[in-house]
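Box 3.1 A note on notation
Throughout this textbook, protein chains are presented in two layers. The first layer is the amino acid sequence; the second is a token string describing backbone geometry. Keep the layers aligned when reading.
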Amino acid sequence: MKLGFIGVGSLGYHLAGSLLRTGFSLTVSDLNRSAAQGLIDAGAAWAPTAREVAAASDSVFTCLPSPAAVDAVVAGPDGVLAGLRPGGTWIDMSTNDRHELQRLAALAAERGINCLEAPVTGGVHKAVSGEITVLAGGDPDVFAAHRPALAAMGGRVFHMGPLGSASIIKVITNMLAFIHLVAAGEAMMLAKRGGLDLAQSFEAIKASSGNSFVHETETQLVLSGSYDVGFTMDLAAKDLGFAHELGREFGVPLEVAGLVEQIFVRGRSQYGGGAQSTQIVKLLEDALGTELRAPGFPARLAD
């Protein structure tokens, strides 16, 4: 199976790299060719447009930052649908709006092209090691045909149901992660203001009923002062917006998530949309004039 991959940013680069390491034939593209240079050096072919990637591939993955970017890359005149042959498959790994995904899937179906969604969760460091979790949605037979490629990128692969199902669970996981991040920051500030050793407090929380994946990973980046999680305030705000759209659609009041969304609105205003999402904890640090630092914590998460 010849694969294409479009969008090799901080996440997509490592997902594509896992496909290469597993032996898949791969053609890549990005707005910035230099972002793909390491993949090209490792054996990937380069194509300047999404259409050319698709023409060289049986199936094409996209990993892009917004629904607008997905629409342009997939449905534009030089897009994926213009290049893929009937019987080919487009697989979106972006965190996308499910209605937009289904709209594009309908356009693909008119051309005889299949569609899967396969957003991932677990953080960039998990993508580096090929252990990120893959959340798939779509036709079971199409999923089965692509499971080896999805498994090459992820430690665990879940087929959540029909197209759109994975978009829902991905938004839920991100919503929870941002809630946990704000809560972990408040917890560490209580420990700091209470005179506790932060490294010891980190370990105690990690061993407690209050632990979370976010505490185990992102709290370390706060304590090191790097905040380098590879995920921006803009992306966090987008995903929290998706969560509230789901809440309205399904009639679920998201009161805690609503408060967290407003905190991220303030964080983006304060530090900029390109700031690391973990800097949301810095809002509390700056407000209280108290840094949360402890020696020995990594500036980035281990691969």
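The longest helix spans residues 165-193. The CA atoms of residues 98 and 164 lie 5 Å apart.
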